[in-house]
Design brief:
- With about 220 residues, the protein is an alpha+beta fold.
- It has one domain: Protein of unknown function DUF1054 (BirA Bifunctional Protein, domain 2, 2-Layer Sandwich), CATH 3.30.930.20.
- The protein has a 6-stranded antiparallel beta sheet with strand order 1-2-3-4-6-5.
- Strand 2 and strand 3 form a beta hairpin.
- The chain is globular.
- The model has no long low-confidence stretch (mean pLDDT about 95).
Length: about 220
C-alpha cells in the first residue's frame, strides 16, 4: 500500500473519539480506525523507512494503570523510529488536531543526563548544540523537554548555556493544523523534510549522549 495522504475520515474518527472515549464508540468505529488512521500511517512510515529506519506504530490503547484519567483509548496515533544504540528518535503523529513531527530525546536515564550535561558544558560541543537549537527555533520548531527549575548540581549559576544544562531531555517539535494537503502525498514530503531538518540535532545527541548503560526499566 502506497501512502496517498491522511483521509479526512481519520480526523473525523478522532473527533468522535474525543467526544466519546468508550469501548462502545471504539468497537463501532474500529474499521474507520484501521482503514483511515493506522493503514495510512503505516504506509507513510514504510515509504520513509529506507532513509530513516523502521518505525514502531504505537498501540491505540492507553496505559491507565498509574493514571487518574481512565479513558481507554489514545486520541492520536503515533509512530516512532528509535534505532538501537542511539539516544535520539524521530516521531510522527496524526490526530483531530492535524499532523505533528518531533525528534530528539524524550527520556534520558541518569547516565545519559550526565553525559549530556558534560557535552553542553564543553567549549566545543556546547556551542554546537546551542547553535542548532537556535537555528531550529528560528525555523519554527518548538524546543522542549523535562527541565530542572534550579541549576543542576555541580554547575555554577553563571555557567554558559544554563538553560540547556537544566534539561533532562531535549526534543524539537512542529505541528500543522488540518489542511487540504494533509489528505495528499504532500504530507509524506512534509514529514520527510521535517525529519531531515532534525538530523543535526539527533546526530549531536547520538554522538554526545548515546544509549544508556543502565538495566532496562521494568514495565
Amino acid at each position: 500500500m502506497s501512502f496517498e495522504g491522511f483521509p479526512d475520515e481519520g480526523l473525523v474518527f478522532y473527533e468522535g473519539l474525543e467526544a466519546d472515549n468508550t469501548r462502545t464508540y471504539w468497537t463501532g468505529h474500529k474499521a474507520d480506525y484501521d482503514q483511515h488512521v493506522r493503514a495510512p500511517l503505516q504506509a507513510l512510515v514504510d515509504e520513509l523507512a529506507a532513509e530513516f529506519g523502521t518505525a514502531k506504530v504505537f498501540r491505540p490503547y492507553r496505559d491507565v494503570r498509574f493514571s487518574h484519567d481512565k479513558t481507554p483509548y489514545k486520541t492520536h496515533q503515533g509512530a516512532v523510529i528509535h534505532p538501537e544504540g542511539r539516544a535520539s528518535a524521530l516521531y510522527v503523529q496524526i490526530s483531530a488536531d492535524g499532523l505533528r513531527v518531533s525528534g530528539g530525546c524524550w527520556r534520558l536515564e541518569s547516565d545519559q543526563v550526565a553525559r549530556y550535561r558534560r557535552a553542553v558544558a564543553d567549549d566545543v560541543q556546547g556551542p554546537r548544540l546551542q547553535a542548532e537549537v537556535d537555528r531550529l527555533s528560528a525555523a519554527g520548531w518548538s524546543i522542549d523537554g523535562d527541565r530542572l527549575v534550579r541549576v543542576p548540581a555541580g554547575y555554577a549559576a553563571d555557567s554558559p548555556r544554563l538553560d540547556l544544562l537544566k534539561h533532562k531531555s531535549l526534543y524539537g517539535s512542529r505541528s500543522w493544523e488540518p489542511s487540504d494537503w494533509l489528505h495528499t502525498r504532500s504530507a509524506l514530503e512534509e514529514v520527510r523534510s521535517a525529519w531531515r531538518d532534525l538530523a543535526r540535532l539527533n546526530t549531536w545527541l547520538d554522538d554526545n549522549v548515546g544509549s544508556t548503560t543502565k538495566e532496562p526499566r521494568r514495565r
